[in-house]
Amino acid sequence: MVLAGIALAAFNLRTAITSLTPLLELVGGELGFGSLAAGVLGMLPTAAFAVLGIATPALVHRLGLERTVVLAMGLAAAGLLVRGWMDGTVGLMVASTVALVGMGIGNVVLPPLVKRYFFDRVGTVSSMYITSMQVGTLLPAFVAVPLAQALGWRVSLAAWVIPALLAALPWLWLLRAGRDGLARVAPGDVEALPRATLPPGARIRRAPLAWSMVALLGTTSLVTYALFTWIPRWMTDAGLGPAAAGAMLGVYSAAGLATSLAVPVLAVRMRQPFLLVLPMLALYAGGFAGLLWAPAAAPIAWSVMLGLAGGSFPLALTLINMRTRTPAGSAGLSGFIHALGYLLACAGPLLVGWLRDLTGGWEWPVAFLAGCLVVLAWAAWSACRPRYLEDEWYGRQGPPRGAPV
């Protein structure tokens, strides 16, 4: 039941994003907004995820991990339902923000849930839930435009309330069953994890590993959300129709399934997972070159290359558990890097859109994204070095006497 709950919750972590971006031109035409508002809508996910990275550890401390997941799915369902019936741009943004708040909470709590219930199968279960998240990313991208053409864009946006409600059911069942209905936990961690309390004196910001992880998740997410927002526009500029352009976003997301399945399983078996990043950087280079110089020649190939290159994202999520010794450390690191990493990623959709409007082409946006990949390469090398957060987070003075590590 826990495994089902994790998989269903993961499915809902991106539906609010990729169900809207293929419809931005259609919705913008009806509600009367242009590229600036589209860029803001593209920035909202990363901004919400950043804020919730800060707030979620406190929610977990008060509610426990399982109740926090229920809250996350409830907020996601409410926002997804309401945003389909908004009559103005501000209402659409507010309702989208509510949905993204729920998804931002889910981002933070799923890694420590994996650490808690499946501490001896981190790679396998991480692969499962990241793949489920990828399916929830690509499916809306494929069906958003056809569903809007058949039933209207409002129904197309609101339809994703159904999987969000379904995702809450396993957790509600487990909570109703009480402690006896919960799965096994890591030895010695039965009481500590539900409150995810860090040891006295622990300061995650003092750990160099944490900052490497921030840079890795941040640059990966910056590039990913820039592509989520602008691939359809990029493709329509190249001459594709709206449905075909939206399908390319689905192809981009579908290609990420392969890396979501493979990267976590491979990473936990490698002493130096950075070796997985090298082919990803080569794929980024090929995909951006194709989109820049011959976008209409092979749009599926460029979308597949960029989707496969996004394997640094499942790697970052897997490293949360690979580089921590305890579920409390996993929860703390997850909140820290989601907060600052997604704050960094906010720049992606806005700057790419601004550079495109400023120059009238995609050369400068590609140059900006290429610079981000240089940072990503350094961050991945640093984060993949074998070490643990708990060994670093007290700083130079070391842990207080009697503090657990």
From TrEMBL:
<dbReference type="Pfam" id="PF07690">
    <property type="entry name" value="MFS_1"/>
</dbReference>
<feature type="transmembrane region" description="Helical">
    <location>
        <begin position="32"/>
        <end position="56"/>
    </location>
</feature>
<dbReference type="InterPro" id="IPR036259">
    <property type="entry name" value="MFS_trans_sf"/>
</dbReference>
<dbReference type="InterPro" id="IPR052524">
    <property type="entry name" value="MFS_Cyanate_Porter"/>
</dbReference>
<dbReference type="InterPro" id="IPR020846">
    <property type="entry name" value="MFS_dom"/>
</dbReference>
<keyword id="KW-0812">Transmembrane</keyword>
<feature type="transmembrane region" description="Helical">
    <location>
        <begin position="364"/>
        <end position="384"/>
    </location>
</feature>
<feature type="transmembrane region" description="Helical">
    <location>
        <begin position="243"/>
        <end position="267"/>
    </location>
</feature>
<keyword id="KW-0472">Membrane</keyword>
<feature type="transmembrane region" description="Helical">
    <location>
        <begin position="68"/>
        <end position="86"/>
    </location>
</feature>
<feature type="transmembrane region" description="Helical">
    <location>
        <begin position="209"/>
        <end position="231"/>
    </location>
</feature>
<dbReference type="GO" id="GO:0022857">
    <property type="term" value="F:transmembrane transporter activity"/>
</dbReference>
<feature type="transmembrane region" description="Helical">
    <location>
        <begin position="332"/>
        <end position="352"/>
    </location>
</feature>
<feature type="transmembrane region" description="Helical">
    <location>
        <begin position="157"/>
        <end position="175"/>
    </location>
</feature>
<dbReference type="InterPro" id="IPR011701">
    <property type="entry name" value="MFS"/>
</dbReference>
<keyword id="KW-1133">Transmembrane helix</keyword>
<feature type="transmembrane region" description="Helical">
    <location>
        <begin position="274"/>
        <end position="294"/>
    </location>
</feature>
<feature type="transmembrane region" description="Helical">
    <location>
        <begin position="300"/>
        <end position="320"/>
    </location>
</feature>
<feature type="transmembrane region" description="Helical">
    <location>
        <begin position="122"/>
        <end position="145"/>
    </location>
</feature>
<protein>
    <submittedName>
        <fullName>MFS transporter</fullName>
    </submittedName>
</protein>
<feature type="domain" description="Major facilitator superfamily (MFS) profile">
    <location>
        <begin position="1"/>
        <end position="389"/>
    </location>
</feature>
<feature type="transmembrane region" description="Helical">
    <location>
        <begin position="92"/>
        <end position="110"/>
    </location>
</feature>
